[in-house]
């Protein structure tokens, strides 16, 4: 399993919604309006990068797929409003 | 030095702009409308978490501060429109 963070700017609203649906389907959770995270296996990771490529339509679109160690993820700081 | 990714949802436009200015000042670069990344030293990392706390004003506000290894950062996949 690998821990991934997917961070994106997708200009088109419909494409952005479709991408988030795909990220949910792959098993990731939303951590911000345009960012998801979760643990996925290597096959799903390949699927993820292939799927993400399909949503890059304009020159303003960008998707970052970052993998990180589980300890780094567990040490993250989450600041939330009460 | 530590590599950080800062991902945020800040409801208030003015607060969100002020936060991004602070993140630029600390030496981070914007990787998405509401996400920054960069290498900072341990003192700046303490400043970062203290500064971020100031921008949490509403229950919908959230900031994730994730540290990761430089190799994980270098292995990230960036998909960009042409």
Automatic annotation (TrEMBL), chains A, B:
It comes from the Archaea. Belongs to the CRISPR-associated endoribonuclease Cas2 protein family. The gene is cas2. It comes from Acidianus brierleyi. Its cofactor is Mg(2+). Homodimer, forms a heterotetramer with a Cas1 homodimer. This is CRISPR-associated endoribonuclease Cas2. GO terms for molecular function: hydrolase activity; metal ion binding; RNA endonuclease activity. Keywords: Antiviral defense, Endonuclease, Hydrolase, Magnesium, Metal-binding, Nuclease. PANTHER family: CRISPR-ASSOCIATED ENDORIBONUCLEASE CAS2, CRISPR-ASSOCIATED ENDORIBONUCLEASE CAS2 3. HAMAP family: Cas2. GO terms for biological process: defense response to virus; maintenance of CRISPR repeat elements. CRISPR (clustered regularly interspaced short palindromic repeat), is an adaptive immune system that provides protection against mobile genetic elements (viruses, transposable elements and conjugative plasmids). CRISPR clusters contain sequences complementary to antecedent mobile elements and target invading nucleic acids. CRISPR clusters are transcribed and processed into CRISPR RNA (crRNA). Functions as a ssRNA-specific endoribonuclease. Involved in the integration of spacer DNA into the CRISPR cassette. Its EC number is 3.1.-.-. Mg(2+) binds at residue 9.
